[in-house]
Design goal:
Number of strands of chain A: 34
Radius of gyration of chain B: 19 Å
CATH architecture of the largest domain in chain A: 3-Layer(bba) Sandwich
Low-confidence stretches of chain B: 1-11
CATH topology of the largest domain in chain B: Fumarate Reductase Iron-sulfur Protein, Chain B, domain 2
Number of helices of chain B: 11
Helix content of chain A: 25-40%
CATH class of the largest domain in chain A: Alpha Beta
Oligomer: heterodimer
Shape of chain B: globular
Bound molecules: flavin-adenine dinucleotide, iron/sulfur cluster
Strand content of chain A: 15-25%
Order of helices and strands of chain B: EHHHHHHHHHHH
Low-confidence stretches of chain A: none
Distance between the termini of chain B: 34 Å
CATH architecture of the largest domain in chain B: Orthogonal Bundle
Strand content of chain B: under 5%
CATH superfamily of the largest domain in chain A: FAD/NAD(P)-binding domain
CATH superfamily of the largest domain in chain B: Alpha-helical ferredoxin
């Protein structure tokens, strides 16, 4: 026979104001099975918890019902208290009489009746509760980091410094991400490469980091603590073991006119190339779409050019190298795939953004984007740091920056603010001012958003000390007349249209997630927003976790982020990962689905509806080892306890522990409906 | 609404902001355009150019627009704007500098009456070391001020003894003259630029 204890909480005034808590305790006393029913001002306080413990011990309770706030708030508190008194934690349940009752009603009498009803349903449920034990799953204490920008680099270093192995997968030929392309960085104007390259080298030399550059994640299986990841190591056509990075091959390649991705098309590279001198790893890669040998092979012609192979003293060039698939076991994954910019041309990669016809769709050669400006301003860039315009290599004396291009523009771009462009435009005006002393930098802006530490001071410095002319308003149209760019804008402070001639225009285009992020997110079963940014589990309290356990997110793939943000997020993911890896076993709530092997018909409806991929196939064999039946098996490590399978199963063979049909049914019956 | 060509050369080789900065030691680029100055300006409702407008036009090199408006001349120099400004811009001093620029007559002239008033005022101070109201009224009206405005109030003001008929000079009138001469020398130098 059940011996249930009921504990009604006033939550100060929160519940007590609208619900007569004493009446609730009294009203539950004569429910069959209830042997103890009391009310108290703050049940979650230490004396409140002691009341629960004492009653369990003295009255030999077999179940506890705490009528108080949502289980989200204090279920853990009371279950721990119950366990402390020797009762299985899962025999303790909460009846929510706050969020579901006192907070939403005014009529005290009716609310009290409702509170009694709510409590009675849980009493009936608890009568059917069975002791459960937490699930313990082993944890593979190695991490995978996807993306080798500053966020991925920081996450990898922090996890590795914390003593765990890391596999860092970067799809490009070198790590470094966009930060390696920047010249100087706001708000301190320190040289980007000078602060980044030491970290890149550290990654390369770290005994606990395995770097797979020029590689991509092919597939991901498993669940928190137990992921199996297949990585595609794309063929570089260069043998890593043999190559010593001398660069002789790149010197001789005859195809020298390929627009360099690293220089945003402003410089040229060869078909076999190292993207930039400090690349990590310092290995050349053959671009098979541009290599003469491979272009011939594609047309079924014999190999002609082999100049690089001939120049290589180590015999490292391997034209027959194939992609390799490598499998790695990891316990946690950090996604740090970064961003791309809204392109200024007509075609936006992979979707139907309209682009900016009014700014010439990128057809005016001296209209460039922010990253291109970074390359022009960079000492390692195509102009060795001189600000020269692309069309004729002249120094632009009148430079104009347009902010919010593709941002804050739901019609043609994104409705969100890209957050970093106000700052980098301020930076660009300064870099320009430092290099072209007699030039004038003009900025068209809607607002100046400079809400970081030292950011407002930085943007004011551009205006007050470095002579940048800020005009509040957007530009309506730009066109080319001779070698001059005509600009038609509006000055909303003066309330006048404004016409202006410029020698060069820089568009601060929106930050967007990397192309292909949707495919990767689907492989990982993490959710993303309508723009493709990876969703965090909670915008305030769980900013670096995704809603898939064991997968974390850092940097600009979650939202527009600057370097300090990206690094802070990366370190936060590392602390989460190291926390997960602190124990060999991972404890999970036992509220997971279980299949009744006797009745499961193997229809796999459950498999089709499970959003988390938790349902697996299990062979039932006879004595001779022949498979006689294939039934469903729910992997407790993956199951999130949503109950969808339970609702779907036609033979009622799958049940969520702690929420069985019997339990739910008795709750309903308690209401007498 | 007229549109304007943007160029840095409205006022000759030296941009207006730089010129004002040279005269005042203040940086017109510091203005946030927050409007706090104009919010407190007692003349804001009367004028077409409020202090924040003036700051913006200086930063944008719009001597042309400044010359056309009455704002500079309606300013009371009460300095409320200056005491309110969060970024130390001192619009009152800036407007002073602009009045100096326009007073030279090279970049546009102040309205005739206002100019007459200023000149008469200074002439009185130079002559007596202080203001001699009767003298001011006479020279203002003769110098271009409105001839018959306010004449009806004269008897009552006289009756209350608020308007003396004979001037009283201050002690040390020589020193006042020396100040005037020194200022004139600086002005001549400025004009020579
Ligand atoms: C013009 C401009 C100027 C800027 N200036 C500054 C500044 O001065 N100061 C500042 O703080 N910030 C600045 N930023 C912002 C800065 O670039 C970002 O904050 C930073 O680069 C974000 O780092 P990240 O690692 O998140 O992303 P990224 O730098 O984009 O790195 C992501 C990496 O992941 C890789 N990757 C992508 N997809 C995959 C995949 N599927 N598999 C494997 N690897 C993948 C990419 O190849 C890349 O290496 C600027 C940005 C721009 C556009
Ligand atoms: S950061 Fe500034 S420029 Fe960029 S979208 Fe936001 S407001 Fe516009
Ligand atoms: S309860 Fe939900 S998560 Fe678990 S197996 Fe069923 S459908 Fe999947
Ligand atoms: S000094 Fe002039 S502009 Fe400033 S508040 Fe007074 S009247 Fe207005
Ligand atoms: S002068 Fe000062 S108070 Fe006036 S708008 Fe500019 S910053 Fe604001």
């Amino acid at each position: 026979m059940a011996r249930i204890g009921v504990f009604v909480c006033h939550c100060g005034e929160n519940i007590g104001r609208t619900v007569d808590c004493h009446a609730v305790a009294e009203g539950c006393k004569d429910v069959p099975g209830v042997v103890h029913s009391v009310d108290y001002k703050y049940m979650c306080s230490d004396p409140g918890q002691q009341m629960v413990k004492k009653a369990i011990e003295e009255k030999g309770l077999t179940g506890v019902v705490v009528a108080a706030c949502s289980p989200h708030m204090h279920e853990k508190t009371f279950r721990r208290a119950a366990a402390g008194a020797g009762l299985n934690a899962f025999l303790c349940e909460m009846a929510n009489v706050r969020e579901h009752c006192s907070w939403i009603h005014e009529d005290r009498e009716k609310a009290t009746v409702k509170a009694i009803d709510i409590t009675r349903t849980i009493i009936e449920k608890v009568k059917h509760n069975v002791p459960l034990s937490t699930i313990r799953i082993p944890v593979t204490r190695r991490a995978l980091v996807i993306g080798g920008g500053i966020a991925g680099i920081q996450a990898a270093l922090d996890i590795a410094d914390g003593g765990r192995e890391v596999i860092l997968v970067e799809k490009g030929p070198s790590i470094g991400g966009h930060m390696s392309q920047l010249s100087e960085t706001f708000p301190t104007l320190d040289c980007s490469q000078c602060i980044l390259t030491p970290r890149m080298v550290e990654v390369y030399q770290h005994p606990r980091i395995k770097l797979y550059a020029y590689s991509e994640v092919e597939s991901v299986e498993g669940y928190i603590g137990n992921f199996k990841v297949t990585v595609r190591r794309k063929a570089r056509s260069v043998d890593e073991e043999k190559c010593n990075g001398c660069g002789a091959c790149t010197q001789v390649c005859p195809n020298k006119k390929i627009p360099s991705e690293f220089d945003c098309g402003l410089g040229k590279r060869t078909a076999i190339y190292v993207p930039f001198p400090q690349a990590v790893p310092n290995l050349p890669t053959v671009d098979r779409n541009k290599c003469l040998l491979f272009m011939n092979r594609a047309k079924g012609r014999p190999d002609t050019c082999k100049k690089c192979a001939e120049a290589c003293e180590k015999g490292a060039i391997d034209f027959d190298q194939q992609d390799r698939l490598i499998t790695e076991d990891v316990g946690a994954i950090v996604v740090a795939t970064g961003y791309q910019l809204y392109t200024i041309g007509k075609d936006q990669p992979k979707d139907n953004l309209k682009g900016y016809g009014e700014y010439g769709y990128g057809t005016i050669p001296d209209v460039i984007d922010g990253l291109q400006f970074e390359r022009l301003a960079s000492a390692s860039g195509p102009t060795s740091g001189k600000i020269l315009r692309p069309s004729d290599g002249k120094v632009p004396k009148r430079i104009v920056f347009l902010q919010c291009i593709g941002s804050r523009d739901p019609q043609k771009g994104m409705e969100y603010c890209s957050k970093i462009c106000c700052m980098y435009v301020a930076k660009h005006t300064m870099l320009y001012h430092h290099k072209v002393h007699d030039g004038v930098a003009t900025v068209f802006y809607m607002d100046i958003r400079a809400a970081g530490k030292g950011y407002e001071e930085f943007s004011r410095r551009a205006i007050e000390e470095e002579g940048a002319q800020y005009i509040r308003g957007r530009v309506s149209r730009m066109w080319r007349e001779g070698d001059v760019i005509k600009i038609l804008g509006f000055d909303t402070l003066e309330g006048e249209p404004i016409e202006m001639d410029a020698d060069m225009v820089v568009l601060a285009t929106a930050m967007r997630p990397q192309p292909g992020i949707d495919v990767l997110a689907q492989k990982l079963s993490v959710s993303y927003d309508q723009h493709g940014f990876i969703n965090e589990a909670h915008p305030k309290l769980r900013p670096v976790e995704t809603n898939t356990a064991g997968i974390y997110v850092a940097g600009a793939c979650q939202a527009p982020r600057d370097i300090p943000d990206a690094v802070a997020m990366a370190s936060a993911t590392a602390s989460k990962v190291l926390g997960l890896f602190a124990n060999e076993m991972l404890e999970r709530e036992p509220t997971v689905a279980r299949v009744d092997e006797g009745t499961c018909a193997g229809c796999f409806h459950c498999e089709r509806v499970c959003a988390y991929g938790a349902v697996e196939h299990k062979d039932i064999k006879d004595r001779a080892g022949n498979v006689v039946r294939v039934i469903a098996y729910v992997n407790p490590g993956v199951c999130q306890g949503c109950g969808t399978c339970e609702a779907t199963c036609p033979s009622k063979s799958v049940e969520l522990q702690g929420f069985t049909d019997e339990q739910i049914w008795s709750e309903i019956q308690a209401l007498g409906v | 609404m007229g549109s304007h060509e943007h160029s840095r050369n409205h006022s000759g080789p030296e941009p207006l902001a730089a010129r004002v900065q040279r005269m005042t030691g203040l940086n017109p680029a510091c203005c946030y355009q927050c409007g706090k100055c104009s919010a407190g300006c007692p003349m804001a409702a009367e004028t077409t150019l409020r202090p924040h407008d003036v700051m913006r036009l200086v930063a944008r090199d719009r001597l042309d627009k400044l010359a056309d408006a009455d704002g500079l001349w309606l300013c009371l120099t009460c300095e409320t704007c200056t005491s309110r400004c969060p970024n130390g811009c001192d619009p009152a001093r800036t407007m002073d500098a602009l009045r100096e620029i326009f007073a030279t007559g090279k970049d546009g002239k102040p309205p005739k009456a206002i100019s007459a008033f200023h000149k008469s005022f200074l002439a009185q101070v130079r002559a007596h070391g202080r203001l001699f109201e009767m003298g001011l009224i006479m020279s203002y009206k003769l110098g271009g001020g409105p001839m018959f405005a306010d004449v009806t109030t004269t008897p009552s003001v006289l009756a209350r003894g608020k308007l003396g008929l004979a001037p009283h000079n201050v002690k040390g009138l020589d020193e006042v003259r020396r100040i005037f001469d020194a200022c004139a020398a600086v002005a001549a130098e400025e004009e020579g630029r």
